[in-house]
Write a structure and sequence with these properties.
By secondary structure, the chain is an alpha+beta fold. Helices cover about 15% and strands about 45% of the residues.
């Protein structure tokens, strides 16, 4: 710690400890704090003794140089004395204030002329504050000075805060700077000096402010000086910058902006009452210029340029007339540290006479943008549309005058990016002859290596002419394709129709990937909507403001937004009429949000009217209503009447009043089937040893003690699960939805056997069918639920043939088999026939009657051949009941052959066809 801060803290602690020792008895404490001794002074004396013991501990720490530890121990001692004062009927704050007032400290308090302090005490700290106005210290005249000393369990802190501190620069400086400023030059600032266990720090704020200055020279003209106060540690830098203009014979001109000096103000010298500016090396530091401008006027070539010095490089603008052609350019050259250099430039050429394109369109200017080592920040463009950021990028009007703003926008839009490259053309088109009514600036930018294409547009329509514009509309447009989104955004800004200002933003966002969404908004979103996409979060309300010169003001705003799960809309109307010091104001707002899943809505309506005088409300009424529902319905509202002071403002509220059904239980969280199925296949029970089809195992090996799977050379390995079917579109998971929606799981790729490395080889495999209740994985209508099979065989895993995988031997054949059922018809009196391997049923007359009268008797097969005597034996093969044919219900044309029922449902829904017969019957 610096010597002076240590001395100040040591002096403050010595004063506190000495003051505590001056109250070493109950009687002395009574005199110091103006309290009343209790009949029994024993408890008071005990607390005083404990405080003195802590004070001795603090003195020992102070002698050892441990100022921070001494401050903490001193606080403990003060706490004991506060407790003793409480027994005398005096609170801690009053005790501290009275004790200090009875014996005030010297030094700084005497120098500043401070008298009685104010004391604030809490359970963790005590703070003493002295305040005085119009104090003079050295070269400073302080409007308000405040000294604060705070002692707490964390240590001691002293602060001197000065408000409206005037610095006499003319007396503080010398040489050329004093000549420029003048002997009476001064500046005002606010600053603060703080001393604690960390040392001395200074802080403050000043300007920058302009100072009067003078300089008499033939070539150089001093346009003014700029003053700024920059805090930093124990010193503060008082920076004086100049603005110089140079003119050589009217041909070459130059302007140097920001060169000057920095004077270091020493806080230690300020506390000692000495002149604040240090001496010797480092007291005065040269400040380089912030920018240099050049101009040239030489015959047909005339123009100007500006070079700006940046913390990380340089920026420049150029505006030259080469005969009738105007050339404009501006750019940045920056050092990106480890990423190397980055460069971006914008250049344009304006034609004195627009080129006719036909249909009243003209080409007014061309240009381009190129950047190396830079990327493009779409967010910076999007957020700056309503602030006119494209005015600084696409064909700016006066690049030299607006050079700092243009270069700042250029650096924000094109940040440094290692390996980045940006390029794109620019066009300025016009429409209307002989007067251009609409001007359109367009730029198409492509950025790599993170590819993105951005189209920028700026349009302006002025009717009838810019000098006497009745209608002046300005719009900025941005479109982005790439980086996972498609974004179109437009903002109307700085526009008016007559004396009505119009503004507003509109945007469309399509985002791909895991967080995919589609959002359309005009004017923004509902105030309470929390899932605003960042790309459209700051859209301006669609609105208009009217302020005719008759005291009437009218503002109308609105918005509407569509998201995948909500519809939002609302608006506001504000009207005011003022006459002199009086005004009448009224407002009406509406905000509505409708949510689809789960269904619900919220509507908020507010209305207010006020009468004001001199900006203060004399009388007013405010109403608010909130409605939400429908499960359950809720209504609430508030009302308030504003009355003139000092009358109270009565208010009333009701609700929420609730009626209707309670809200339904929230749906279960979405399920990600991929992880669940993968976990199921990793379980040991999912892996089994099975026999090869048609070749039962000659022997069966005993299991291993550790339960590991044993596989014979002639055996097969089977892995399967019954959690969810594979190769099937999953629309839901019971009552829960699935993510991603409509996913389809499959075991893709080759099955490889062996350790990691080149020894791993492919093995033959075939699918294994499992039985699933497919209805729980599909979103079906009630009719489809009735037609759906309860269970269906779908792929659940694979069977793997590991035998001689490297030699591609032991090819595994498919396991799927189909079983057929054969039926025979028997007619009375017909010769008895038997079919090999097929059972024969002798149907009696009544059984035949039942058969003919039922659904089987109505089939085309039975109707056509009911009583034919020949070919009485028929063999019918019936496929699984879940096999379904897809046909067009209007034309009867076959759309898809027989397939599992679940696949047929998806085919029918996609082709707008219908499901045909539930079974396929084949006559053999």
């Amino acid at each position: 710690m610096d010597d002076l801060p240590a001395q100040l803290l040591r002096a403050a602690l010595d004063y506190v400890l000495g003051r505590l020792r001056g109250m070493a008895t109950p009687a002395k404490l009574k005199d110091a704090v103006d309290g009343a001794l209790p009949p029994d002074t024993g408890p008071v004396a005990a607390l005083i003794d404990a405080g003195l013991a802590k004070a001795d501990e603090a003195s020992a720490l102070l002698a050892a140089g441990n100022i921070a530890g001494a401050a903490v121990a001193t606080w403990d001692a003060v706490g004991q004395f506060f407790a003793a004062a409480a027994l005398l009927g005096v609170d801690a704050g009053s005790a501290a204030q009275r004790a200090v007032e009875k014996q005030r400290p010297k030094a700084l308090l005497s120098q500043l002329g401070l008298t009685a302090p104010t004391a604030t005490a809490s359970g963790s700290a005590v703070e003493l504050a002295w305040t005085r106005r119009d104090v003079r210290v050295a070269l400073f005249r302080v409007g308000t000075v405040r000294l604060v000393v705070a002692l707490s369990g964390t240590g001691l802190r002293m602060s001197v805060r000065g408000g409206q501190v005037r610095i006499d620069l003319g007396q503080a400086t010398a040489g050329v700077l004093r000549i420029l400023i003048g002997a009476a030059g001064s500046a005002a600032a606010d600053f603060e000096l703080t001393v604690d266990h960390r040392g001395l720090t200074a802080g403050g704020s000043l300007g920058p402010i302009a100072l009067p200055a003078r300089l008499d020279a033939q070539v150089v003209e001093l346009e003014g000086l700029e003053l700024a106060l920059e805090p930093g540690g124990p010193t503060m830098g008082l920076t004086v910058r100049s603005r110089l203009a140079v003119d050589i014979a009217g041909v070459i001109g130059a302007r140097v902006d920001g060169s000057g000096v920095r004077l270091m103000l020493d806080a230690t010298r300020i506390l000692r009452g000495e002149p604040p500016f240090g001496e010797g090396e480092g007291a005065v530091v040269a400040v380089p210029p912030r920018g240099i401008g050049l101009s040239l006027t030489a015959g047909p070539a005339r123009g100007s340029g500006y070079l700006l010095v940046l913390p990380d490089g340089y920026g420049g603008v150029l505006d030259i007339m080469l005969g009738p052609v105007k050339v404009t350019a501006f750019g940045l050259l920056r050092s990106s540290g480890a990423d190397g250099m980055s460069f971006v430039a914008v250049m344009s050429v304006s034609f004195p006479v627009p080129i006719e394109l036909g249909l009243l369109f003209t080409l007014n200017a061309v240009g381009g943008i190129v950047g190396l080592g830079v990327g493009i920040d779409p967010a910076a463009i999007s957020s700056g549309l309503k602030d006119g950021v494209l005015d600084n990028l696409l064909f700016p009007e006066d690049v030299r005058k607006a050079a700092p703003t243009i270069l700042q926008s250029l650096g924000r839009i094109f940040p440094a990016q290692r390996g980045g490259f940006v390029v794109g053309p620019m066009l300025r088109l016009g429409w209307g002859r002989p007067v251009t009514l609409v001007t359109l600036d367009v730029a198409v930018l492509l950025a790599v290596p993170d590819p993105v294409m951005i189209v920028l547009g700026r349009a302006r329509s002025v009717i009838p002419d810019e000098s006497v514009a009745i209608i002046d509309l300005r719009a900025a447009v941005m479109a982005q394709v790439g980086r996972g989104i498609v974004l179109v955004r437009a903002e109307l800004y700085s526009s008016r129709i007559g004396f009505v200002s119009v503004y507003g933003g509109i945007g469309l966002l399509i985002r791909f990937g895991d967080d995919r969404t589609v959002v359309l908004s005009a004017g923004g979103f509902h105030p309470t909507y929390t899932r605003k996409p960042p790309e459209l979060a700051d859209l301006s309300r669609i609105g208009a403001e009217m302020s005719p010169p008759i005291g009437l003001q009218l503002r109308v705003q609105g918005y509407v937004a569509l998201t995948p799960n909500t519809v939002q809309f609302g608006g506001a109307i504000e009207i005011a009429y003022s006459v002199g010091i009086a005004a009448v104001r009224g407002a009406l707002t509406l905000d509505a949000l409708i949510q689809f899943d789960p269904f619900g809505f919220e509507v908020d309506i507010t209305a207010s009217a006020h009468v004001e005088a001199l900006g203060c409300a004399l009388f007013g009424v405010s109403l608010a209503l909130h409605l939400s529902g429908p499960s359950p319905w809720r209504v609430s509202g508030t009302g308030k009447v504003t009355l003139p002071w000092p009358l109270p403002d009565p208010s009333i509220s009701f609700g929420p009043v609730q009626f209707g059904d309670a809200p339904a239980a929230p749906p279960p969280p979405p399920v990600r089937p991929l992880g669940l199925v993968a976990d199921a296949l990793r379980r040991p029970g999912a892996w089994q040893r099975i026999d090869r089809q048609g070749a039962p195992s000659p022997v069966r090996l005993a299991p291993l003690p550790d339960g590991a799977l044993v596989l014979e050379p002639w055996g097969l390995m089977r892995t399967s699960q019954r959690l969810a079917p594979l190769d099937m579109t999953l629309e839901r998971w019971g009552a829960a939805s699935v993510e991603p929606a409509g996913c389809r799981l499959a075991l893709a790729g080759a099955v490889r056997i062996g350790p990691e490395g080149p020894e791993r080889t492919d093995a033959d495999h075939s699918p294994v069918a499992e039985t699933f209740g497919v209805g729980q994985f599909m979103s079906l209508t009630k009719d489809a639920q009735l037609a759906a099979p309860e269970f269906e065989e779908r792929t659940g895993g694979v069977a793997i043939d590991p035998s001689d995988a490297a030699a591609d031997a032991g090819v595994l054949r498919g396991f799927a088999t189909s079983a057929t059922m054969a039926y025979e018809d028997s007619w009375p009196g017909a010769p008895e026939k038997k079919s090999s391997g097929v059972g024969f049923f002798d149907l009696s007359g009544w059984a035949r009657f039942v058969l003919d009268a039922g659904p089987a008797g109505a089939t085309r097969l039975r109707v056509d051949d009911r009583y034919r005597a020949d070919d009485l034996e028929r063999r019918i093969a019936v496929r699984q009941v879940s096999e379904t044919l897809v046909t067009d219900v209007r034309t009867g044309a076959v759309i898809a052959e027989f397939a599992p029922w679940t696949d047929a449902v998806h085919t029918a829904s996609q082709s707008l066809g219908g499901l045909a017969s539930m079974t396929k019957v084949v006559v053999s």
